[in-house]
Design goal:
- There is one protein chain.
- This protein is an alpha/beta fold and 348 residues long.
- It folds into 2 domains: 2-144 and 310-342, Quinone Oxidoreductase, Chain A, domain 1 (Alpha-Beta Complex); 152-288, Rossmann fold, CATH 3.40.50.720.
- The protein has 11 helices and 18 strands.
- It has helices spanning 40-47, 96-99, 140-143, 146-159, 175-186, 200-208, 222-229, 245-253, 276-281, 294-306, 324-332, and strands at 2-6, 14-18, 28-37, 57-58, 62-70, 82-85, 88-90, 110-111, 123-127, 131-133, 167-171, 190-195, 213-216, 235-240, 255-263, 285-288, 315-320, 338-342.
- Strands 3, 5, 6, 9, 10, 17 and 18 form a 7-stranded mixed beta sheet that branches. Strands 13-12-11-14-15-16 form a 6-stranded parallel beta sheet, sandwiched between helices. A 3-stranded antiparallel beta sheet has the order 2-1-4, with no helix packed on it.
- α4 (146-159) packs across α10 (294-306).
- It is globular, with a radius of gyration of 20 Å.
- The mean pLDDT is 96.
- The protein binds zinc ion (2 copies).
- One zinc ion binds at residues 39, 41, 61-62, 147-148.
Length: 348
């Protein structure tokens, strides 16, 4: 089968090549892939700056498709099912986080597209426990966005506890920021998105999908806007999705006393100082939200089925598997929001 393989560590070393198809042994499900999304971590893997990626490995962990074979121990999933899968390929099964199904925090977790072959290929295998059936009204294209949507659910609902009437601010309008904004909106919050001058196209997409206000911080005074929208109190929850320390500090500065700041972006090295004084004096709760877990997927699929989020509206490019590099280059240049690879033509 055709696949996009990261062949060795370092910059690029990515090759479109033929490799053997994976086999559905044990509890594994073999999936013919319709679409595979390009994630920020795939770009880090391309640059050679993502330590979790263990080459040689097929990249990709955001996907949808149709089951073509199941292993002898598979019970629930059948050939012909339309599915997506969590990114967890294996966990230790013994640690405290595995027992509570917080698989995102198992330190022996193995991920699809990092430790084992991923979805930028014609086929992938995943353990049955990670595979989810798709509701009939969910297209394979929108289903390929379930992983970033589940990250948005984990941050907004499971960590942020967002609710009706909350005012939230999302820093960063890439795919993750857009998903957080959509999930917060679906829960009845007022949503502000904040970015910089180069985010104009991304602001438009966020507002089209329900964000109440987009703020270009290079031209507008975010703190003043937030004050006006919250009777001087500050937002209830801020989400830092850009991985920039100045954005994290801005998030701490515009959040109300006893409010919550959720960190999702990964900071570069070296870091500027974080304003911890604000956390202390205003009793802020500053916490991390790392990827997603089984409960986040269940909620994400419900939101998608109900139509209260429309993740495919952030897709700005779809390319064929052999043209993968085109979409990577565009994403690296910061164009659009979400690039998706079509891995087998004609699947609906
Ligand atoms: Zn991802
Ligand atoms: Zn574990």
């Amino acid at each position: 089968m055709k696949a996009v393989v990261k062949t060795e560590v370092g910059f690029d070393h990515m090759v479109f090549m033929d490799i053997p198809e994976p086999e559905a042994t044990g509890d594994l499900v073999k999936i013919k892939i319709a679409y595979s999304g390009i994630c920020g971590t795939d770009l880090h893997a391309f640059r050679g700056t993502y330590a979790s990626t263990k080459p040689p490995v097929v990249l990709g962990h955001e996907f949808s498709g149709i089951v073509t074979a199941v292993g002898p121990d598979v019970k629930r999933i059948k050939v012909g099912d339309r599915v997506t899968s969590e990114t967890t390929f294996a966990t230790c099964g013994k640690c405290a986080c595995c027992r509570s199904r917080d698989y995102n925090l198992c330190s022996n977790r193995k991920g699809i597209g990092t430790h084992v072959n991923g979805s930028m290929a014609q086929y992938v295998v995943s353990r049955e426990e990670s595979v989810h059936l798709l509701p009939d009204n969910v297209s394979l294209l929108s289903a390929s966005l379930l992983e970033p949507l589940a990250c948005g659910v984990h941050a907004s609902i499971e960590k942020g506890n967002v609710g009706k009437g909350d005012v939230v601010c999302v820093f960063g309008v890439g795919a993750i920021g857009q998903m957080v904004a959509q999930v917060c909106k679906s829960q009845g919050a007022t949503v502000i998105v904040a970015g910089i001058a180069s985010d104009v196209e991304r602001f438009e997409i966020a507002v089209k999908n329900g964000a109440d206000r987009a703020v270009d911080q290079t031209r507008e005074d975010l703190a003043a806007i937030v004050k006006e929208m919250t009777d001087g109190e500050g937002v209830d929850i801020a989400f830092e999705c850009s991985g920039a320390v100045p954005a994290a500090n801005a998030a701490l500065a515009i959040t109300r006393r006893k409010g919550r700041v959720i960190q999702m972006g990964v900071f570069p090295e070296p870091k500027e100082p974080i304003w911890t004084d604000l956390i202390l004096h205003r009793e802020l709760c500053y916490m991390g939200s790392r990827s997603q877990k089984p409960s986040s997927w269940r909620t994400a699929i419900q939101l998608l089925e109900a139509g209260t989020v429309i993740p495919e509206k952030i897709v700005t490019a779809v390319v064929s598997l052999e043209n993968w590099r085109e979409a990577f280059d565009a994403s690296i240049r910061g164009e659009g929001v979400k690039g998706v690879i079509c891995c087998n033509e004609g699947m609906e």
